[in-house]
Design goal:
- The protein has 21 helices and 4 strands.
- By secondary structure, it is mainly alpha-helical.
- Strands 1-2-4-3 form a 4-stranded mixed sheet, sandwiched between helices.
- The protein is globular, with a radius of gyration of 25 Å.
- InterPro entries: LipidA_mod_glycosyltrf_83 (IPR050297).
């Protein structure tokens, strides 16, 4: 009876966690394309991650057997998602829910340091719109979204240290070390905040001759870091793919994907220009960001020390610089900028905390339910105000993302339609090639595994990596796969689409390939058109074509 009584007390004290979980499921259901409410997750990147994750589950090695440049943890998560749902990205929905849940929990932990429990719960409930802000949160399931709580966790550690003379527990150092390793093997351009935090804390401890704290930071952070990366290093060594991993993940990322050829200093200035533009381009972001940062600097209710304020600003700036380092202004993929948002959350937390104190807001057992429910409804209203993804869901049948046909008959998007055809007309598992564009989701719906190194195209100019399209064309010349899927702008035939002249052989808006006219003669020599389907993707009307090998 004593055990059950303790469990009951614990559940009562932690009931806010259940509330956070329910809200996370509810909000992600409306915002993420991985949700059961959506027909399909159309994101090229997400389907690419899923294809490589699925391949990994079948013994096909990333970097060595298929070319892709994200970190191995991304593919592991999508491989697990494949085991949960083999022909859709529904298996990523629990990861999305977990990410938002953890973000709310960390916001609660931050607020709880400065106000009472129910007020901290209310503040946490009001925060999700930052993580779901469209178009930075577009389809969902980006590395930036999944690591949103990790960046918040770093800021929480800073705030915790600021309140305790920067004495940080072994547990927090171990956690931060693990998060560094996790981020390092997911997308290392998100490490800027951690880099400046560790360098600054090391200098701080040396200045104050806190040798015990230096030792604790190094030992426990290293332990957490090794826990995150050593299993992968063992895996790559065991599969003889370590050199391929280093070449693709580090060398190719740094030399092929960089858009700017300027000096290091110039690239840093470009990054700050991009960040400054980001803070000015939306009124809400301007208020929460630029004005909010000024508020934090001059407020005594947030950071207790000048060093804490300075370190927060340095972390914010370096975080922003790393995220878009090597990119020109107006050439940044907006989902990269979602990683700016965890720092926008902090001024809002303290604005709420101070408002609660100033107006002496009372939340007690009598009004708890109505206050928290009101906060949830207000938060949901804010989410819908910054994210309209639900308009492309099953709640709105036959919307433009599914078909451009004017019909009342229920339709399916091209991905589902083509996937059904390929599975029905193939002996065993289909073989296919996604020609000329980033993975469009047809590997996902057909169940096909990539059987060529360049199973898709990339956001790379042809001159920088001609082997990609040349390798794909070689697959077509030798008719190595049963199915070919490609796209053109709506109204264009395969043998008439030359691509956009200014794109230099690059994928363009709408995930359109660089052109099919030159390769059409070779293509039609070995393949015939089975069907096509037109739908809207990223403000472009796109026709998808399904071709089958001639027997």
């Amino acid at each position: 009876m004593i055990v059950f009584s303790k469990i009951k007390i614990w559940l009562s004290n932690k009931s806010y966690l259940i509330l956070f979980l329910l809200i996370s499921v509810w909000f992600m259901g409306f915002a993420s394309y991985t949700s059961p409410l959506f027909y399909f997750d159309y994101s090229p990147d997400n389907n690419c991650f899923f294809t490589v994750g699925k391949a990994l589950m079948h013994g096909i090695l990333p970097y060595k057997d298929v070319f892709e440049q994200k970190g191995p943890y991304v593919y592991l998560m999508h491989g697990i998602a494949y085991l949960l749902s083999s022909r859709s990205l529904l298996g990523m929905f629990p990861f999305e829910v977990l990410s938002l849940f953890l973000s709310m929990y960390i916001v609660y932990k931050i607020a709880r340091m400065y106000t009472f429990q129910l007020a901290a719960c209310a503040i946490a409930i009001l925060i999700p719109f930052f993580q779901l802000f469209h178009p930075y949160y577009n389809y969902g399931d980006t590395v930036e979204s999944l690591l949103f709580p990790a960046i918040l966790g770093l800021i929480y550690t800073l705030l915790k240290g600021d309140r305790n003379h920067f004495v940080i527990s072994r547990w927090l150092w171990s956690l931060q070390g693990f998060l560094v390793g996790l981020t390092f093997f997911m997308k290392y351009t998100l490490l800027g905040g951690w880099i400046i935090f560790y360098l600054a804390m090391f200098a701080y401890y040396l200045k104050h001759k806190s040798w015990k704290e230096v030792s604790k930071m190094i030992r426990w952070s290293l332990l957490g870091f090794l826990v995150a990366i050593v299993p992968w290093l063992i895996f790559f060594l065991a599969t003889h793919s370590l050199s391929a991993f280093f070449h693709v993940y580090f060398y190719e990322n740094m030399h092929i994907y960089m858009l700017s050829d300027n000096s290091v200093f110039a690239k840093f200035i470009e990054s700050l220009t991009i960040y400054s533009s980001f803070l000015r381009q939306d009124p809400l972001i301007f208020v929460c960001g630029f004005i909010g940062y000024i508020y934090l600097l001059f407020s005594k209710s947030a950071f207790k020390t000048t060093w804490g304020k300075m370190l927060f600003v340095m972390m914010m700036v370096v975080n922003a610089a790393f995220i878009v380092y090597g990119y020109h202004p107006n050439q940044v993929y907006q989902y990269y900028e979602l990683a700016f948002f965890p720092y926008l959350v902090i001024p809002s937390i303290f604005a709420f905390v101070n408002a609660i104190k100033k107006f002496d807001v009372k939340i007690n057992d009598q009004n708890e339910s109505i206050v928290l429910l009101s906060c949830a409804l207000l938060s949901f209203f804010l989410v819908l105000g910054v994210n309209d993804n639900i308009l492309s869901s099953k709640i709105f049948p036959n919307n433009g993302s599914v078909t451009l046909n004017q019909t009342n008959k229920p339709q399916q998007p091209a991905q589902v339609e083509f996937g059904n055809i390929m599975r029905a007309q193939s002996n065993g598992r289909p073989t296919m090639l996604n020609y000329g564009s980033i993975d469009m989701g047809f590997y996902t719906t057909s169940g096909a595994l990539p059987n060529t190194y360049y199973f898709q195209n990339y956001n790379i100019e042809y001159d920088k990596a001609p082997q990609i399209l040349n390798g794909q064309l070689n697959v077509i010349k030798n008719h190595k796969v049963q199915w070919i899927v490609l796209n053109t702008p709506a109204g264009k035939q395969i043998n008439k689409w030359s691509g956009y002249s200014g794109a230099k052989g690059k994928i363009t808006s709408g995930n359109l390939n660089p052109g099919t006219k030159k390769m059409s003669k070779t293509l039609f020599k070995h393949y015939r058109i089975v069907t096509n389907h037109t739908q809207n993707f990223e403000s472009a009307n796109v026709t998808y074509w399904l071709l089958k090998r001639k027997d």
